[in-house]
């Protein structure tokens, strides 16, 4: 029995060493694989002049929209309207990119609007999609609450009807 336990202990240690090596190799490969993406993101982030008034206004718009959504979370009509507005904003992002790319000198210090729309996707469409997801999750949560209330009312009604039948 003691020899079996010793063999089991050796096998477990070998297995743990193997797993440790695998995790170490995987994390190293992941770091190496993600490094270009991290470098690109940092380059993108540092290439932007965050003190430009229109960028501050854009970020303030996103924050204000998110706060409006949070404070109006109980009003499904407002939420639905804001959801549609956010999705329409994403829909027109390509047209906005073209328009803003041809008129950037009137409001920006440099042309951020390339033909692929990376900048506008990152700073306009991305936040609007995140905000849309927040609204969608809130709508689903509200729907679940309504379904629970409806089922409780149905069960109370059935219980009352059964009680009235017995009397």
UniProtKB/TrEMBL annotation:
GO terms of molecular function: DNA binding
Topology in membrane: Multi-pass membrane protein
Pfam family of the protein (one): TMEM18
A cellular component term, taken from the record's GO annotations: nuclear membrane
Main location: membrane
Compartments it resides in: Endomembrane system; Nucleus membrane
Keyword annotations: Coiled coil, DNA-binding, Membrane, Nucleus, Transmembrane, Transmembrane helix
TM ranges: 54-71, 83-104, 124-148
Keyword Magnesium: no
InterPro entries: TMEM18
Family of the protein in this entry: Belongs to the TMEM18 family.
Alphabetical list of PANTHER family matching this protein: TRANSMEMBRANE PROTEIN 18 (PTHR22593:SF2)
Protein name: Transmembrane protein 18
